[in-house]
């Protein structure tokens, strides 16, 4: 992933602040803020169709192409699979900037609040990884297990290797 020099400098300053007494939360906040833009970007299709096709295939739901109606749980899956794993605290910042209105809708899509220099490239790279992983997995449970291992939720504890010993080995498609 390409990261701008300004991002690197901000992270270095955050780590420097952490060593001089600032909290880990301050570093996480600085990183999450770098993923966000100051304004709202115009809508551009950021989530390719294979992302949704992969969810439908792994959940054994019928997929009739991009026009297939998506159940509401897809938003929860997207938050979990994508936004909770991009940067620590990013989902919380996005939900604060893009609240749900009285009708249960948001003013914009979360990805419209991402920065063009860090947020959008990180989203594209993460989605490529997720789609590749979806294509290799045969079940939703297998996909989520491998996703938790390869792209853990930011700010959460990592999976312990002993857990892998208790689970059956993954079966990949060719």
Question: In brief, what are we looking at here?
Answer:
The protein is mainly alpha-helical. It has helices spanning 5-19, 24-35, 49-58, 73-86, 90-97, 119-136, 140-150, 161-166.
Beta-strand content = under 5%
What is the radius of gyration? 18 Å
Average of the residue pLDDT scores: 83
Q: Largest sheet, if any?
A: none
Regions with little confidence, pLDDT below 50 for 5+ residues: none
- The coarse silhouette is globular
Could you give the distance between the termini? 27 Å
SS-derived structural category: mainly alpha
SSE run: HHHHHHHH
Structural features, described:
The protein is mainly alpha-helical and 174 residues long. The chain has eight helices and no strands. The protein starts with a helix and ends in an 8-residue tail after the last helix.
């Amino acid at each position: 992933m390409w990261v701008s020099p300004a991002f690197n400098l901000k992270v270095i300053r955050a780590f420097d602040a952490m060593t001089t007494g600032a909290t880990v939360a301050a570093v996480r906040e600085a990183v999450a803020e770098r993923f966000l833009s100051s304004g709202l970007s115009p809508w551009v299709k950021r989530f390719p169709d294979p992302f949704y096709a992969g969810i439908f295939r792994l959940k054994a739901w019928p997929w009739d192409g991009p026009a297939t109606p998506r159940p509401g749980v897809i938003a929860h899956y997207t938050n979990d699979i994508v936004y909770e794993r991009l940067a620590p605290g990013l989902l919380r910042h996005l939900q604060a900037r893009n609240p749900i209105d009285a009708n249960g809708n948001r003013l914009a899509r979360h990805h419209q609040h991402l920065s063009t220099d860090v947020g959008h490239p990180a989203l594209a790279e993460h989605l490529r990884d997720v789609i590749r992983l979806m294509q290799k997995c045969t079940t939703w449970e297998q996909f989520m297990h491998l996703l938790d291992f390869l792209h853990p939720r930011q700010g959460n504890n990592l999976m312990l290797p002993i857990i892998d010993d208790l689970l059956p080995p993954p079966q990949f498609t060719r």
